[in-house]
Amino acid sequence: NGLFKQAITAGKRVRSETRISTGGVSVSSAAVELAQLKLPTHNWADAKVCIIGAGKMSTLLVKHLLSKGCTQVTILNRSLPRAQALQEEFPDMQMDIRLMPDLMPCVEDSDVIFAASGTPGWSAGRWGRCWKVQAVAQLLQCLVAQLQPVIVACVL
Predict the structure, then answer these.
(1) In what order do the strands lie in the sheet with 112-115?
(2) CA-to-CA distance for 39 and 35, rounded, in angstroms?
(3) Which side of the chain, N or C, has fewer Cβ within a 10 Å radius?
(4) Is 66 exposed, middle or buried (0-12, 13-18, 19+ CB in 10 A)?
């Protein structure tokens, strides 16, 4: 019992005397903070954001983006219902909902891309190729090498 109390006291002291609790507390919040640091203006208001996926991680991303001042994103998903549910959950966020066949135009038009799709299935790609959706961030890194500077964060 005494050891437990000492551990709690030590933990409280570390949190109050250091900056350990000032950073992101989830993968999605850390991704949003890191991407914001990489933006030329460090401001979400003038960034074109694309989120691939419309599940739990995307919900957290939208929440954190809203808290940081982002008010417009493109949601790219395999199906409309889940993306529309995400849109209904965040009425303050303007969302352009697109389906996976629009991947390339969305990538070309984005400054920041969050890959938040964890589906184990396959997705049809440009030129008839296919790739595993979990590897979409790696694919995007290759695709955007020929485009403008883009920030890609994978938050699966």
Answers:
(1) 94-99, 72-77, 49-52, 112-115, 151-154
(2) 6
(3) N
(4) middle
Is residue 107 left, alpha or beta, with left meaning phi > 0 and alpha meaning psi from -120 to 50?
alpha
- Provide the pairing of β-strand 49-52 with 112-115: parallel
Confidence band for 106, pLDDT divided at 50, 70 and 90? confident
Q: What is the mean pLDDT of residues 58-75?
A: 94
Q: Residue 136: CB partners within 8 Å, gap ≥ 6?
A: 52, 115, 117, 123, 154
- How much is the CA Rg of the chain, to the nearest whole Å? 18
CA–CA gap between residue 76 and residue 83 (Å, rounded)? 8
112's torsion region: left (phi>0), alpha (psi -120 to 50) or beta?
A: beta
